[in-house]
């Protein structure tokens, strides 16, 4: 007898019939396989509540113990498996579904002249930034450089693996996943976004002449159907870093002419074309320095310019700044809490003010995104609510008993009313401190390696950087030793670099030259990196 899953999600009903021979056994993977990806923001480690579903009837099996789950009620989909031959009814809360309305950074600052020798001939072109989480497509007029429209959304690969390492791991275990992930980025993400951009500008797809794409090394491998598995094992050797071209039809863009799709050149396995494009867009490629370029994300990429030479590294900050692995964390989507303000009155009572994306009432928000956590670290420490080690100060806990509760792994602070409340736990704080310590130690390592006490300018790139409160990022130690006046937020420079390359073919030569001018610094080989990392695991 075939398995039947009756699903209710977002006020719609859906029935699926899994095939035991081909479908994933894990419930979260099964739902993603059938077009209902969940917010598995902790990479299915069972340490958040983002993939909670309701079992209405039928039975499942616990992933780890193998014990049956037969009682109706909430459960974590990442910790349950379906049993072939059974009938199940589930309700999927809207907050557990991966949001469709991604908030992607599509603005950028350009500090170089815009050329006029397009990469391909014709009327219109597309510049693309493929991020691990979100993708942005920009449509421009090639003769003038005039930007007509933008379109953005989730990289549909997130339904198969939350981060780069997860997707590399999928390909390592099952080579057939390379084609599945390629289809997710090409046919399910890029093609619809490109058509959306064309529709907004009333430009027929057949008038598009080409596409210039920037992204990290793994994303560009998957775009072209190359196995990224070597990026996951020592010595982390990419199959390609150079500029490559493929025909659009071979990638599945069948609504467009068979136009050239250009992947921009990258610098290393974990310092990709997105960083090279950003270094060009900010003008750092043609500056004596010294200056720093920092893109804070799952892998924080950092580049130091000194006397015309570049020194670059990647540091594993982890996905915490996108809300992953945190009890109430989430990506920056509509409704997420993006800002936190804390204050104390004369009696030590804590006042809390929350700001959400789209102005949803905080009590209805599904969670906090990364910028809110940075606000909390800085303000809670400044108010004395947090001690230097990232634990809640018992004095403030005693003065505000309604806001704090003891949990299995320490205390938690409730920031909203209602059930379940949004809260920040001491376990969350420990993960955040590890992430900010990785970025800070990477910055310090490059500076000390080149015997620099500091630099006059830090360019903060990427979507996360655009939403950060820079003084709070400095105060919590994410950007150690800087003044707000020294930090310049430059936006999605990966997209900016792709736009420039599309309009001026000479940009490709400059990006290729960056490969010869850049020294990649392996942080794990630096004898002092671990000490710097440990030193940054506190709040000053």
What does this structure look like?
The chain is of the alpha+beta class and 540 residues long. Among the domains are: 4-96, Roll (Ubiquitin-like (UB roll)), CATH 3.10.20.30; 124-282, Domain of unknown function (DUF4445) (Nucleotidyltransferase, domain 5), CATH 3.30.420.480; 321-425, no CATH class. Helices cover 26% and strands 25% of the residues. It has 13 helices and 25 strands. The strands form six sheets. It has a six-stranded mixed sheet with strand order 11-10-9-12-14-13, with helices on both faces. A hairpin with a 2-residue loop joins β1 (4-9) and β2 (12-16).
What is the molecular shape?
A: globular
The low-confidence runs, each spanning 5 or more residues with pLDDT under 50, are none
Give the DSSP E fraction (strand runs of 2 or more residues): 15-25%
CATH superfamily of the domain at 124-282: Domain of unknown function (DUF4445)
Radius of gyration: 24 Å
The main pleated sheet reads as: 6 strands, mixed
Helix content: 25-40%
Write the CATH fold name of the domain at 124-282.
Answer: Nucleotidyltransferase, domain 5
Number of strands: 25
By CATH, the architecture of the domain at 124-282 is named 2-Layer Sandwich
Helices and strands: which structural class?
alpha+beta
The largest beta-sheet arranges its strands as 11-10-9-12-14-13
Task: Please tally the helical runs, counting DSSP H or I stretches of 4 or more residues.
Answer: 13
The separation of the N and C termini measures 62 Å
Question: Whole-number average pLDDT?
Answer: 89
**CATH class assignment of the domain at 124-282:** Alpha Beta
